[in-house]
Specification:
- With 61 residues, this protein is an alpha+beta fold.
- 28% of the residues lie in helices and 16% in strands.
- The protein is built from two helices and two strands; from the N terminus they run H-E-E-H.
- Strands 1-2 form a two-stranded antiparallel sheet.
- It is elongated and about 45 Å long.
Length: 61
């Protein structure tokens, strides 16, 4: 089940900043690296809403 959720976009360190010129920077706040929503890293720490969704799915199985 974790594989379904494990990606940067669901991590609590994932950020998107919109600059004044309209460009966006998508990055990991913890690591400081640019990333993409679908990337996966071992340091993944899911957002609280993702934890709840995973727990809810686990309980319904």
């Amino acid at each position: 089940m974790i594989e379904r959720y494990h990606c940067c976009a669901t991590c609590k360190h994932f950020r998107i900043d919109v600059r004044e010129d309209g460009d966006r920077r998508i990055y990991c706040e913890r690591l400081g690296f640019d990333t993409k929503p679908t990337y996966q890293f071992n340091c993944w720490d899911p957002k609280e809403r993702v934890r709840k969704a995973m727990k809810q799915e686990e309980e319904s199985e």
